[in-house]
Amino acid sequence: MQSRLIRLFQSDVVLKISLVLTVLSMFLPFVYMEIGPMGYRYYGPNVPDIYIFGGYIFGKDTSFWGINFAYKVQLGSILLIAYNQWRYLSTQRVKFMILNASLLLLFPIWLEAYVGGVVCNSDGADLTVYWYSMPGIWVWGVVFAAHIVMLFAGFRKSV
To answer: Could you tell me if residue 157 is inside a domain?
Structure first.
């Protein structure tokens, strides 16, 4: 049974699923920030809630340089991870998987800083932040776990 699992993670099937999930994550919400009563009083009744997707942010003015930079960095990182997965399919070089695993490991720290920047840029909006229930976080977890298992299976194969 263990041998079959190792062969499965050494095959390209898991990587192709991971690649599809990575591309899909650009369109999934990672963080939802709900405007509170003080936000409606301060900004008016038509202020939207904030959604941070993998590739964009809704509910914030993207003309502010910090928000504009942050969503583009996040989109670029997701595209880099997808590109590295695609490159790994053709070259089978482990360095692409190690780079991806490193980027995926640092992603929660990046997301925390991104959310902190959005909250600080929303003075008086009384934001309640939800991210553990968002589908983008769950997809990130699956992609990260797949990378770690594929690295383990790859090292196991070379031994």
So the answer is: no
